[in-house]
Amino acid sequence: MCGIVGYIGFQEVAPIIINGLKRLEYRGYDSAGLALLSDNSLSILKRAGKVTDLETLVEVHPVSSTIGIGHTRWATHGIPNDVNAHPHVDQTGTIALVHNGIIENHAAIRQRLQRDGIVFSTDTDTEALVQLISAFFDITHDLEHAVRLALNEVDGTYGIVVVSSREPDKLIAARRGSPLVLGINEGEYFVASDASAIVGHTRQVIFLEDDDVATLTRNGYEVKTLGDEIVEHEIEEITYDIEQIEKSGFEHFMLKEIHEQPQTIMDSMRGRLIQEKGTAKLGGLREVLPVLNNARRIIITACGTSWHAGLVGEYMLEHYARIPVEVEYASEFRYKDPIINEDDVVIAISQSGETADTLAALREAKLRGATVIGICNVVGSTIARETHAGVYIHAGPEIGVASTKAFTAQLVALSLLTLMLGRNRGFISIEEGREFAQELLNIPAKVEEILRDTTPIQDLAERYYQSSNVLYLGRGYNFPAALEGALKLKEISYIHAEGYPAAEMKHGPIALIDENMPVVFIAPQDRIHEKVISNIQEVKARKGQVIAIVNHEDDVIDGLADYIIRIPRTVDFLSPLLTSIPLQLLAYYIAVRRGCDVDQPRNLAKSVTVE
Ligand code: G6P
């Protein structure tokens, strides 16, 4: 969603902000802008459209400055146009603010200030906040104090950065519910909503906590609470390289990330398998292990792709660890007055670690006494910090909005958890455990084999890219894989796609099937392979076009499917790690063929930090 970059130091600020905003484009946005401070006056440049449009505007109106703030906006209040783009300024034009999140009581603040004669010029919730800061500044004559007073009156979520010509040598940053990171270098300081915007300049960072207010000057920084108490945060080191957030020769980030999977799958299990004992060790769960081993129930909560990973986890954990598992959409879970017992374990799965609904769901579960575990990719993210314990999936930065490598890494984390709990609880024997460990280790090479030649999938994309609907069917572990395949296609190609459990097709979707309806069957040779073959026959009998993802050895499928994609075989519970790869590629190549913006699909955001 929205992105923030701020800088104070000795370098020309405009290129730093523009390049930082480009790094944040992947989060999804519809307008961009910046505020530059020079000669004690603020220049505001903003545009609906892409960061490159803003860059052109900056070239036409160059401003030399060493302090400024920038923003990419994903519209929530007010349409995406030039006026509603951030930064927003107060009515005197001397205070500028960029804001991620939502000010829920903005209407009340606006009315109050309007009664005092303050004139508003946009429809946004953000303008209410900058006008409120300005009103307090008139009283305090101290920017940081004015920001704290204003934020004390705000309901909602925010990550903000403020700059003012009335106190020209500082930036004020604050957060509640929307991430902000400070970057530290000699004589220069950065602030951003995501470390990828600043990692090209510095690796030394501080992750702000909720209700922190930071003041940055060229001589240093200070972090206080909203209640005016100084807080000390450890400086942390970003571990990834700039190359990891570049396309490295691939046409899109999504394609790069699909091809990274042999490596990321390996990275997510590295050092965690104990082969001779046929089990796994997850260091981040050490302290909650007794609770986990004895959990009466596990509730997995997540959104989007992470929710699909959770569904695979349900099948695995119930079968091998014999623990009842429920998988809940975080957005539903948080408001459904859930029944949670003290011996329940709640697992929040989130690539970004910042998804607002998932965060709220885990807070609800914590309040009700559950032990809460996170499965996250982004180190230091809010969910990672607020859970009692957790597992990082180590997939590296994922830039493509449609999640690929994070999904497979989440599956690995869940497989390791299943192996560990299955062994600890005595439902997986040591021999079986060793076999599973070996199968997991074999997965990266099998993924590599699928990726070696993508031409069959490109041919398939060529054949079906003009479809208006696609049905994805699978059973067991591959039912969630079908959901994920359909989600990938609709996210990036805008083709309507639905995933269904293959047998459930008879209760509705079968009515859609005719000679124009492509149906993707995910049918590896598992326990229920024969049943899926029967479902394929049901589709064929109605002249549907069958695309089948099957194993190399499968000869039953010949003559039954219109198009066959063959992949290596593995044990049932790991099969989504392989079946999801051709589905990712199919969505990708169809989207490219349709001329879609693969990495930044319309209306979507990488990290959904509002409800
Ligand atoms: C957004 C993204 C999806 C992602 C979902 C959950 O909708 O576009 O790709 O699966 O959020 O995100 P999370 O970071 O919590 O896994």
Quick structural summary:
This protein has 611 residues and is of the alpha/beta class.
Structural topology:
Layout: E1 3-8, H1 13-24, E2 31-38, E3 41-48, H2 51-60, E4 67-73, E5 88-89, E6 95-100, H3 106-115, H4 125-140, H5 143-151, E7 158-164, E8 171-176, E9 181-185, E10 188-192, E11 204-207, E12 212-217, E13 220-225, E14 236-237, H6 253-259, H7 261-269, E15 273-274, E16 279-280, H8 289-293, E17 297-302, H9 304-321, E18 325-329, H10 330-333, E19 344-350, H11 356-367, E20 371-376, H12 382-386, E21 389-392, H13 405-424, H14 430-452, H15 455-464, E22 469-474, H16 478-493, E23 496-501, E24 518-522, H17 529-540, E25 545-551, E26 563-567, H18 575-593
Parallel strand pairs: 17-18, 17-19, 19-20, 20-21, 22-23, 22-24, 24-25, 25-26
Antiparallel strand pairs: 1-4, 1-10, 2-3, 2-4, 5-6, 6-7, 7-8, 8-12, 9-10, 9-11, 11-14, 12-13, 15-16
What do you see in this structure?
The chain is α/β, with parallel strands linked by helices and 611 residues long. It contains 18 helices and 26 strands. The strands form 5 sheets. It has an 8-stranded antiparallel beta sheet with strand order 3-2-4-1-10-9-11-14, with helices on one face. Strands 5-6-7-8-12-13 form a 6-stranded antiparallel beta sheet, covered by helices on one side. The N and C termini lie close together (12 Å). The mean pLDDT is 95. The structure holds 6-O-phosphono-alpha-D-glucopyranose. 6-O-phosphono-alpha-D-glucopyranose is lined by residues 303-306, 350-352, 355, 358, 401-403, 604, 606-608. 6-O-phosphono-alpha-D-glucopyranose (G6P) binds at residues 303-306, 350-352, 355, 358, 401-403, 604, 606-608.
